[in-house]
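Summary for the steering committee. The consortium agreed at its last meeting that each partner would contribute one worked example illustrating the joint modelling workflow. Our contribution is presented below. We chose a case with several input lines so that the handling of multiple components could be demonstrated. No manual editing was applied between input and output; the record is shown as generated.
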Amino acid sequence: MAASLRVDELHVTFPLYHGDTRTLRKTLASAASSRFEQDQQKRVVVQALRGISFSLKAGDRLGLVGNNGAGKTTLLRALAGIYEPVRGRVTAHGEINALLDTNLGMNLDLTGRENIGLRGLHAGLTRSRIREIEQDVEAFADLGSFLDMPVRTYSSGMVLRLGFAMATSIRPRILLMDEWFLAGDASFMSKARDRLEELVRQAEILVISTHKPEIVAAWCTHVLWLENGSIRLQGPPDEVLPAYLGHDVQADAAMVLSGD
Amino acid sequence: MTGSSVAGMPPDTDEPVLDLRPESAPARVRHALRDFTETLAQWRLCWTLGWLDVKLRYRGSVLGPFWLTASTAVMIAAMGVIYTTLFKINLADYLPFLTLSLVLWGFVGSMVNEGTVCLTQADFMIRAMRMPFGVHAARVLVRNLLVLLHNVLVVVVVFALFHVWPGSRALWALPGAALWIFDSLAAAMMLGMLGARFRDIPPVVASTMQIFFFVSPIIWKPELIEKGHAWLQINPFYSLIEIVRRPLLGEMVPNHLWLPALAWSGLLWVAFLLLFFRVRSRLAYWV
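What follows is the complete predicted structure of the assembly.
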């Protein structure tokens, strides 16, 4: 069966238990249009996602665009099954790998090698497969003897390389990616691009959240524009992107991808 | 590299890998039970996490995890000196009991205290990938079992010094130990959930455990209570400690201790299951 990902009327709200509820209630009263609201039990909640629906089949590449705080990362987490829906439904066929933040749930006190082992165990890989991944990561991330040092001692570039190599050596059918993957310096990016493009090609479904319109224009077949947790617009890139940016980016994108 | 399929998840199946929506009552139970089976399937991850925790705590130190053994040994030796010189207590009778009690209580106490933060401390993992929540409780269990094993060395040495040999009766501690493992998982998970929701739980539990340390027969023998012995039973730790400690000291465990131990364990499990059915799907939002 081909991979598929379906989201129906997805609502995600965060309860605010640990904030000052009285101040929050004031905020609530003053800003009627805000995303704060009270649920039936009089708890203050933030509406992170409201009524998101879309459906992806094998071969689809969805780009999520929107301002900071629009709900892109929360949506990726909901797709990965980390946040379960408050209302609505998420159905996925095919195994999922979510590359959400640079640390990827790494324990900074452990060595790079130990973190690779943990990640492999979590994915249910066999010992020999984990060893393969270890070698693959070692070759790509180029950390030398740092692989046996605690991740805490790494430079941020090294953490990024390790996280990237680790995440991209486990190949899922549904790939969920946050934009940090595209945040390396120029030399890293040129090295990473082939690997990333191969991974994206192999994945049957890609959902990527990004601020870079050229990535969306180059990689995605659909775009979903999130605003304050709701869908502002969705459709093919040449319809949504111009609206999102207020101008056509195809030209810029072509330039960026052919150049550097 | 061709590994597009992940072991344990067959790539071609009609069953969705994820099908998430607000849960009906039967689904709550089903998903909670699936959390347990997935935790069992991830036993290698639980083991590695627990082992790395212990290793990490003593990374770079000379003795490594044997600092656990060393510090327990120092404490026991100091107490031995104090009790003989100040209280004139017969050490041969008391010190083996005290050593065993303190080591066992060390396990119980840290299991409960670390249980309260087992989910909040794993927040970065919980938010990075979907995994069964039982893994976090199992990790605390593995970590504390390893600590216990290091401390058992001290017990063995003290028993040898004072010629205490429980004989084959010690094997009767095994059913008690099995019960401890089940209870530890339930307790860590339940306190972990409460600790994620209410941030006051860890300090409250820590002070409560301090009280339990003194009101439970840990540093004193239960025989010291002459009147109202039955009242000891309302302390769940009393019967639970005795079912493991007595066999290890070469005594039999009477039924009047096993019954409350089983009753308290049953109560703990019912409370844990009810809570877990109810809040499992919300845990990621709380940490």
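Residues 1-12 of chain B have pLDDT under 50 and may be disordered. Residues 64 and 282 of chain B are 38 Å apart (CA to CA).
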